[in-house]
Amino acid sequence: xxxxxxxxxxxxxxxxxxxxxxxxxxxxxxxxxxxxxxxxxxxxxxxxxxxxxxxxxxxxxxxxxxxxxxxxxxxxxxxxxxxxxxxxxxxxxxxxxxxxxxxxxxxxxxxxxxxxxxxxxxxxxxxxxxxxxxxxxxxxxxxxxxxxxxxxxxxxxxxxxxxxxxxxxxxxxxxxxxxxxxxxxxxxxxxxxxxxxxxxxxxxxxxxxxxxxxxxxxxxxxxxxxxxxxxxxxxxxxxxxxxxxxxxxxxxxxxxxxxxxxxxxxxxxxxxxxxxxxxxxxxxxxxxxxxxxxxxxxxxxxxxxxxxxxxxxxxxxx
Length: 318
Prior knowledge:
Layout: H1 13-16, E1 47-50, E2 53-58, E3 61-63, E4 78-80, E5 83-88, E6 91-96, H2 102-118, E7 124-127, E8 131-133, H3 136-141, E9 155-156, E10 173-175, E11 180-183, H4 193-214, H5 222-226, E12 232-236, E13 239-242, H6 253-268, H7 275-278, H8 281-292, H9 298-303, H10 305-309
Antiparallel strand pairs: 1-11, 2-3, 2-6, 2-7, 4-5, 5-6, 8-10, 9-12, 11-13, 12-13
């Protein structure tokens, strides 16, 4: 049986994915203590980023980001200190420079958001809400190109298939993501099978540490009915873009820290407990249904106390 260090590094990432150790059974014996009081150190060689979206409001009405002069596009994002800003559909988007510590991650994000906010005309504000419905007037005034949905596909890491593009019944509805980027390599060929398998395994693990947990905090059901379902990811030359979360966590520093700690713990735990290999197909489908319908399932909450409620490994039931 192979042995592993308590934490992993980027160089060993490819090797331990197929060498997972057996899972000890540990019973919960005491009350959970307060967690997330300090950020965890990142695994050596890994970097983390994000590209969350927000909606621009004038009073109580959302307006197209392009209509208020937000610079940058998907093809040519606008460079600012510690990241970029751009128009993404009808929303505004921030991209941050890669970070290797939570302080850097948090500073990058708050700095870029502050610069985006300063670009807004008087009487306008950013709202970090997962979904909105535009008024007909505001929608009709937006550029036609910005109304397009699903221009770039993402993938389901559990099936390997391409996810269908969002198609809302109400054409005036738009959604915003809080996508996460994890890097451990560079310039990988996206046709390389081993790289894709590594990305898929990490995406699967993140579903258990992040997607399930998000059900406790993200009450919006509209966005995930359209996209951001279990396993939604894009493969990148540097690693993985995890696309399941909405932007619910962005404005709250405590939630930003918990997202950070959950990314880190998901990686560090892969040499101890890799959930996709340890859970039966029926329970996996239950989890998929819960995530995809944004339903907080009490049985799942109990079964996956670790890692849904706590990141403390002593509560591991598996």
